[in-house]
């Protein structure tokens, strides 16, 4: 278990922080490191009690070795942290906090067993049980519970804003003990379409958009991605010896999936973490989507997956799109494999209450009502169903649902090569003669519309040559609609999240 920063409210400009970092580093280089000047109060007889063996691994905070207890021959793991590297007081506090956390959680079946802490003039030694890293299955169980908290919060228009291990505790010492969220001190309500402009959170887990003062519910998912990375490999994906340095890492760098133990971790687990640690929040998995990922889903129940607030938002948005963009999204949806639609199938099943394979007007109304910040009028629910219902039979089937619920930015970000092929395949459903352009005649044949096609062409035909190229078609898929239809507006923030969880400290 690594040491964690305490909760902070980040109220400084990142550029100013970088300047302070350089000054701080220059000053600290002239002084004796704080670690060398600190008596931690730990035992001083490590060399008498233990014999260090081979190196197991290393991270930002030190090296971990196998060691042998000279008294009984038991093998233990020893994390050795060099005092010279504890340049600033915050580094010393990190080590003290880690030891304190291990002491307090000693005896829990789901936490590494702590034996003791030692120090000498050069090092601090943390002695733990050997081979105690979480298995992937253990990690998936923990992460699934965190994601359920986040998804439920987001449905209530609430962003947690401080997802980190310290804010989740096990209810009991039983092996199957549920995890409980414990701290909503930095949480806040947000209206649909709005963003937080303040910088709040904990340095190790803060999302890039938080540092850019433009964050929303997606920042909770980033934090869970950081937690998952740590659970799987024992290191943080973004680290520096100062908070300012950590912020720079979060903004500029990508997590390392090459160092041990990542080569031995499953492809599914790596795919999951990568899709959570996407810097563009639009392309990041939502909390509900993440619950449908195969790595988290294994051993879980589909009924545990709540309705995804982003799916509801996409369906509301679909009604605003021009007819051409609706046609384009339906064509794109038809190119996606069933396996890649697992998360949307889960969402469809969650909305299809009677399990008859179609979403009725009443089922759509019930689903949209779960997004508490939006209280849509019945007429708007009908308008949404009519926009999605392409065959006008009064219900929404899965194929129609997919077209309205797609996350286009994710498709492009997660696999750019597949996106190129997929968007071209969608384009060719219109480009009948394969000359590289969609003409008004081809558009009329595809849509079945009568009268002038010019209004449909207007949005996509950027160069005004009277036809749509592949690049213009891709741009249409990426961009929001230019339709002038009225946008449904939220009716204020939701009710408080009362009695949502039994909090335990």
From TrEMBL:
Annotated source species: Salix dunnii
GO molecular function: ATP binding; calcium ion binding; protein serine/threonine kinase activity
Keyword Thylakoid: no
Domain Protein kinase: residue ranges: 50-296
Subcellular location: Membrane
UniProt membrane topology term: Lipid-anchor
Residue positions binding ATP: 79
Location, primary (coarse class): membrane
Protein name, as recorded: non-specific serine/threonine protein kinase
SMART domains: EFh (SM00054), S_TKc (SM00220)
One GO cellular component term noted in the UniProt record for this chain: membrane
Positions of the EF-hand domain: 339-374, 376-411, 418-453, 456-483
Record bears the keyword rRNA processing: no
Pfam families membership: EF-hand_7, Pkinase
């Amino acid at each position: 278990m690594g040491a964690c920063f305490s909760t902070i409210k980040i109220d400084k400009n990142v550029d100013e922080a970088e300047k302070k970092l350089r000054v701080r580093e220059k000053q600290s280089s002239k002084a004796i490191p704080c670690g060398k000047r600190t008596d931690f109060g730990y035992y001083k007889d490590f060399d008498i009690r233990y014999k260090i063996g081979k190196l197991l691994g290393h991270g930002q905070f030190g090296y971990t070795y196998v060691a042998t207890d000279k008294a009984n021959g038991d093998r233990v793991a020893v994390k050795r942290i060099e005092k010279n590297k504890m340049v600033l007081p915050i580094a010393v506090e990190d080590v003290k906090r880690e030891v304190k956390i291990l002491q307090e959680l000693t005896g829990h079946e789901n936490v590494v067993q702590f034996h003791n802490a030692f120090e000498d003039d050069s090092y601090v030694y943390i002695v733990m049980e050997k081979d105690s890293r979480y298995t992937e299955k253990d990690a998936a169980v923990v992460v699934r519970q965190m994601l359920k908290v986040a998804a439920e919060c987001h449905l209530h228009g609430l962003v947690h804003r401080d997802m980190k291990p310290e804010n989740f505790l096990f209810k009991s010492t039983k092996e199957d003990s549920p995890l409980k969220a414990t701290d909503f001190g930095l949480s806040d309500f947000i209206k649909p379409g709005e963003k937080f402009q303040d910088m709040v959170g904990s340095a190790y887990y803060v999302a890039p958009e938080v540092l850019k003062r433009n964050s929303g519910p997606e920042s909770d998912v980033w934090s869970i991605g950081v937690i998952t990375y740590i659970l799987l490999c024992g290191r943080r994906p973004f680290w520096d010896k100062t908070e300012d340095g950590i912020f720079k890492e979060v903004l500029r760098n990508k997590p390392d999936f090459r160092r041990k133990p990542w080569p031995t971790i499953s492809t599914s687990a790596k795919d999951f973490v990568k899709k959570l640690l996407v810097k563009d929040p639009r392309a990041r998995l939502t909390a509900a989507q993440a619950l449908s990922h195969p790595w988290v889903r294994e051993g879980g129940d589909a009924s545990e997956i709540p309705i995804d607030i982003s799916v509801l938002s996409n369906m509301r948005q679909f009604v605003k799109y021009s007819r051409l963009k609706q046609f384009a999204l339906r064509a794109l949806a038809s190119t996606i494999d069933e396996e890649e639609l697992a998360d949307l199938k889960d969402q469809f099943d969650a909305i299809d209450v009677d399990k008859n394979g179609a979403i009725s007007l009443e089922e759509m109304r019930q689903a949209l009502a779960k997004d508490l910040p939006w209280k849509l009028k019945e007429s708007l629910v009908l308008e949404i169903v009519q926009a999605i219902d392409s065959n006008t039979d009064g219900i929404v089937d899965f194929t129609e649902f997919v077209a309205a619920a797609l996350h286009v930015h994710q498709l492009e970000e997660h696999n750019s090569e597949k996106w190129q092929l997929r968007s071209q395949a969608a384009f060719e459903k219109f480009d009948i003669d394969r000359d590289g352009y969609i003409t008004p005649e081809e558009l009329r044949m595809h849509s079945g519309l009568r009268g002038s096609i010019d209004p449909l062409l207007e949005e996509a035909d950027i160069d005004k040559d009277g036809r749509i190229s592949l690049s213009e078609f891709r741009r249409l898929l990426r961009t929001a609609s230019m339709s002038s239809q009225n946008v449904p507006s939220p009716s204020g923030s939701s009710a408080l999240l009362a009695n949502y969880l039994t909090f335990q400290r």
